[in-house]
Specification:
Helix content: 25-40%
Structural class: alpha/beta
Number of strands: 23
Strand content: 15-25%
Number of helices: 18
Largest sheet: 6 strands, mixed
Shape: elongated
Strand order of the largest sheet: 10-15-14-13-11-12
Distance between the termini: 40 Å
């Protein structure tokens, strides 16, 4: 937007802040520029103690701070001084008639609402941290950016100080526009946080999310795509070592954590392009790593390794024998960390403090899709045996293991597993039959027999062809959601060929 090149001199500043760091330095600079300072409450007391000439808001409005401090600046002489248009003759006339002093700079920050919510404070304490006067001052000053500078939080203190020193109390419209833009970001973020707290039960349908923290990423999925991560850096796994994490790394790391967090037993997973190419559960971490790697050592090259246990020295020594991009675990033995850090670019992450989102967001046209994260993990009690032959305890364990993997793989998905280890999977195929054939071919390609294996599918079988192909490959037991109008045909095939089948009633599509 093209702006006018209008210069304004600051003659009077209103300062009402919660955070007072650097305020004395700013006030000193304002005094040097011949600016009168007006202030309220604690800020007034602070400035007086600093020996800075300051006028109280009460001396202008004629009213004291009332209602326990809830009303201090909400007065026509304050808001009129901010909002009246300096180039509008009627506004200027009325400001003189009603003795409304011009306010050319507003420095205000807001009560720490989000911090109070995060602290677990009682409801009434949270309510009292909903700022009224401050948010009103921000909006008023930002609206009248042609005449007024608004500093809406402590992040603006340094830019204001630099402006005062550089331009000696003057500002251009571009300066004021920039401060106003930041002010409206402050007010919209603040109001969004309040709404989300009031609407924590989701009773009001609204997609409202305001995230002001951002981390620049080298690029997106490809070098020609710009990218950033929006969220607190603390929401990411702590990086211990390695190069700057990338957009694709973050996608794979989240996929790895979502998968590995579904296992209670000691587990290792290897992720490539959001899909597991290796995974195993074993009592000993080193064994879990070896079995996971064996599933597909080719795809593991350059992959993401995830563990739900602290990485020990024997496991680190074996991991260090291959090239991988990222390893993430809830901790590392000191000597194991030293081994893994031998590759300077290798990204080492700690998952200890990571919280997985309960919601999933995806841009869609000019809007957004929102859904709950698929947090369902089936248990033996969730399995409905639909064949004459019941699965053995070992087959049940393998089916539940495979069903976790199928949930975290791109649809259409078939997973073959045996002895709590991924044999192979077919992912992202347009045909479920193709997914199965891909999985069988891959398992055979790495020297695995499918005899005694189990098969998991993310959705029902519309025809009996998949169970037939699986049976001929050696699969003995099948787990899937069920729900096809032709489920009976797959059940009949299993009964005719001494196979066990269970249904879960829960589909696990992933797109």
């Amino acid at each position: 937007m093209e702006l006018e090149n209008s210069t304004r001199k600051i003659t009077r500043a209103l300062i009402s802040v919660y955070h007072k760091d650097h305020i004395q330095e700013i006030a000193d600079e304002l005094v040097k520029c011949g600016v009168e300072i007006v202030s309220t409450g604690g800020t007034f007391d602070f400035l007086q103690k600093c020996g800075i000439p300051v006028v109280s808001v009460e001396s202008i409005t004629g009213y004291p701070s009332i209602f326990g401090g809830r009303v201090k600046t909400l007065h026509p002489k304050i808001f009129g001084g901010i909002l009246y248009r300096r180039e509008n003759a009627q506004d200027v006339s009325q400001s003189a008639e009603y003795e409304v002093p011009a306010v050319d700079l507003v420095i205000v920050d807001l009560y720490p609402f989000e911090e109070t919510v995060a602290s677990g404070a009682p409801r009434q304490d949270i309510i009292e941290k909903i700022d009224i006067g401050g948010i009103s001052l921000i909006r008023a000053a930002a609206k009248n950016y042609r005449d007024v500078i608004i500093v809406s939080g402590k992040d603006g203190y340094e830019p204001l100080l630099n402006l005062l020193k550089e331009k000696k109390g003057y500002s251009d419209e571009s300066d004021r526009w920039n401060f106003a833009a930041h002010a409206f970001l402050t007010s919209s973020h603040y109001d969004t946080a309040i709404f989300e707290w009031f609407n924590s039960d989701g009773a009001i349908a609204s997609f409202s999310k305001s995230i002001t923290d951002s981390t620049h990423l080298r690029y997106g999925e490809n070098p020609h795509q710009a990218a950033a991560y929006f969220g607190s850096p603390d929401s990411l796994p702590a990086q211990i070592h390695g190069k700057e994490i990338s957009y694709n790394n973050l996608l794979d790391v989240e996929a790895a954590l979502e998968l590995i967090s579904d296992f209670k037993e000691t587990a290792v997973a290897i992720i490539k392009h959001n899909n597991a190419c290796g995974c195993a559960v074993r009592p000993v971490l080193l064994d879990a790593w070896k079995e996971a790697l064996a599933a597909d050592p080719v795809s593991a090259f350059g992959g993401i390794i995830a563990s739900n246990r602290v990485i020990d020295v024997p496991t680190a020594e074996e991991m260090n024998k291959i090239f991988f991009e990222v390893v993430i675990a809830p901790g590392y033995e000191p000597a194991a960390l030293e081994i893994l850090e031998s590759k300077k670019n290798r990204i080492i992450l700690d998952s200890t403090s990571v919280k997985l989102s309960t919601k999933k967001f995806r841009s869609m046209f000019t809007g957004a899709l929102v859904q709950d994260r698929d947090a369902v993990v089936e248990t033996p009690e969730d399995l409905k045996v639909v064949t004459r032959k019941a699965p053995t305890r070992k087959e049940i364990d393998d089916m539940l293991f495979a069903n976790i993997l199928v949930k975290h793989s791109k649809s259409n998905t078939i997973v073959l597993a045996k002895d709590l280890r991924l044999l192979a999977s077919g992912v992202g195929q347009t045909s479920r039959v193709d997914s199965l054939k891909q999985a069988i071919e891959k398992a055979h390609g790495f020297g695995f027999s499918c005899d005694g294996a189990v098969m998991s599918s993310d959705a029902f079988f519309p025809f009996p062809d998949c169970v037939e192909i699986a049976h001929k490959a050696g699969v003995n037991a099948v787990i899937h959601p069920g729900g096809s109008i032709r489920d009976a045909e797959s059940v009949d095939y299993c009964d005719a060929n001494d196979m066990a089948m269970v249904m879960t009633g829960k589909r696990h599509f992933k797109h």
